[in-house]
Design brief:
globular; 79% helix; mainly alpha; 0% strand; 19 helices; 463 residues; Growth Hormone, Chain: A
């Protein structure tokens, strides 16, 4: 058992480190969505239009997506605290560049740095939780991180709009970047744990990564990952475009009589829907399975986007957009909150971490591409561009619903839970296996496998 990771003896120190990890993760989500409610300030700062804002936002997702397949390898190959402080340094540096430069090209570099720095944070937080918490407590970690992201989404809407109006875009960037940098330093100081040497861990992780890729491409079950990846390319590509770029701007351009401040408050309701859906859907999916939420959510969001495209003729009030965005966030969370569980269940546990890393690439890539292309349509169609985008996104989510038909149901609950309840009384209860030196290492390995498997069931947000 000498190879086990061991954290600080003080439980208070462990929870402080985990709380700091949650704070840094909330900042990464805030970085992801921060441009959506302040597009007018961003356009003024860089002297650009909504298409330029879309490209600026997409730079975050390009580097974020490219880094996803290897972030787990990087965290294992180095100590988690060094990964976290390096991430926070890159986030802070990118925030400084984005805030102080006036050139749009330099702004692209700043946002790309921010995306690169944000990429390893979630995996690093999960790493700490798997070491510091017992399996019984660890299962709550993904939900807590999702709540942190939801809170950041609420802060990164109307409150961020008011703060930007008060102190300006430059100091907002500096403040958000610094909010990640300070906890990163504290994690580097407090987040100790001992394990096998970094060199041995790095070599083992690289070998496991290569073996996982090889098995993924030769595993017949991996074929079902293709429709799942395509689904989230279109589904998350649309949701990232709304949450990170077009959200509040959609409202004020469909109805110019609505102020940008009021629009940002209505857009806040999207984050409220995300929190509700993200918390509720994992429990609901125990009874519905994994596939139905993907079908229903994409179909209903297609109708919501159609409503966005059609109601512009009636100059709808702001509260109407608020209702639409509430349900938009709710249904977005309904699909994404079970997508990672489906991805994990399609392959063996041995390669699940590798597959999750590869899978993460496609939602972020979709967000990057659609944030580049959809604002260009608005640029070239100043009068009805937002209606055109609404119709395009209607088709985009309808296509995702069509792809969902080909998804493979992976949840065992819908087919076995009733039978297991029926025959529970017929099962013999086996006595626990006594702990001996011979089976100690095997049970320890199983414990770590359970923690690793649980760590990858949480959505990104995931969005």
């Amino acid at each position: 058992m000498g190879s086990l990771n061991v954290g600080p003896e003080s439980s208070a120190q462990r929870y402080v480190v985990l709380a700091l990890c949650g704070l840094v993760y909330a900042v990464t989500y805030l970085q992801r969505v921060m441009l959506a409610p302040i597009t007018d300030a961003v356009q003024k700062h860089f002297g650009t239009d909504i298409a330029g804002v879309g490209t600026l936002s997409s730079c975050f997702f390009y580097t974020y997506s490219i880094a996803q397949p290897v972030v787990g390898l990087m965290v294992d190959a180095t100590h988690a605290r060094w990964t976290m402080i390096a991430s926070c340094l890159v986030i802070f540096a990118g925030s400084l560049v984005t805030g102080f430069v006036r050139s749009l090209a330099a702004g692209y570099v700043g946002r790309a740095l921010v995306g690169l720095g944000c990429a390893p944070v979630y995996v690093t937080a999960i790493k700490y939780a798997s070491i510091y918490l017992s399996p019984e407590r660890f299962v709550f970690c993904p939900g807590i991180l999702a709540a942190c992201a939801g809170l950041a989404g609420i802060i990164g809407s109307a409150p961020l709009k008011h703060l930007t109006d008060a102190i300006g875009f430059t100091w907002v960037c500096v403040g958000i970047g610094g909010t990640a940098f300070i906890p990163g330093i504290l994690i580097a100081c407090l987040g100790q744990y001992t394990s096998i040497s970094a060199a041995e861990m790095g070599k083992a992780s690289l070998q496991q990564f290569k073996a996982g890729l090889a098995e993924m491409f030769h595993n017949r079950g991996s074929l079902f990952l293709i429709p799942l990846m395509l689904y989230y390319f279109f589904f998350s590509g649309g949701s990232y475009t709304i949450s990170s770029c077009l959200g509040a701007a959609f409202i004020v351009n469909v109805n110019p009589e609505i102020s940008s401040t009021y629009a940002s408050w209505m857009f806040t309701l999207q984050s409220v829907g995300l929190v509700i859906g993200g918390v509720a859907m994992p429990f609901i999916s125990r009874y519905t399975g994994r596939k139905p939420p993907h079908l229903v959510a994409s179909g209903l969001i297609a109708l919501i986007m159609l409503a966005f495209a059609l109601i512009g003729e009636a100059d709808p009030p702001g509260w109407a957009f608020g209702i639409l965005y509430t349900f938009y966030g709710l249904f977005t969370a309904c699909a994404s909150s079970v997508g990672y569980s489906m991805c994990k269940e399609l392959v063996s546990v041995a390669i699940a971490s590798t597959v999750i890393g590869v899978f993460n690439f496609f939602p972020a890539l979709g967000g990057a591409i659609f944030q580049n292309t959809l604002p260009l349509i608005i640029r070239h169609n100043p009068d009805g561009g937002y209606r055109i985008v609404g119709f395009i996104m209607t088709g985009q989510y309808a296509l995702a619903m069509f792809i969902a038909i080909f998804l493979k149901e992976t949840s065992p609950c819908t087919s076995t839970c009733i039978r297991s309840q029926k025959h529970r009384g017929q099962r013999e209860v086996q006595p626990p296996t006594p702990l001996t030196p011979e089976n100690d290492n095997a049970q320890t390995s199983m414990l770590l496998d359970v923690r690793a498997e649980t760590a990858i069931t949480s959505p990104v947000c995931s969005t």
